[in-house]
Amino acid sequence: MNSLSQIKLIKLRDYLKTYRHFDTLTEQEKEDYLKKILEMDEAKQEEVYTWLLYEEEMEKARMLTKLKEQVDLLGSKVKLLVNKKNEGEQALKDKLEEIELQKNLT
Amino acid sequence: METPKNYTEQILESDSSPKENEEKKESPKSKLSEATKERVKIEREIDRALKSYEKALSGNFNLKTPENNEDVKALNLFKQVQILRAKLVGAKMEKLEQLVLDFNALNGRVAEFLSEENNPIEKKRIDVAFNRTNLQPEPQDDLGLTEGTKARDPEKLSDLDYLTLEDESAKNPNVVDELTDTKVDRSLEFKQAEEVQKLQDLETQKQNQVTEKLAIINSDNEPENAPRLLRQLWELSHNKMGKIASIEPHTDNASLVFEYKNGTKKIVPPSAIDKFAGRSFDRFEKKYLSKVEDFEEKVTELDFEEDLGGRADTSEITPEESKLETEPKKDDYSKLDEKSGTDVLKGKGVFKV
Question: Can you give the pTM of this predicted structure?
Answer without folding.
Answer: 0.43
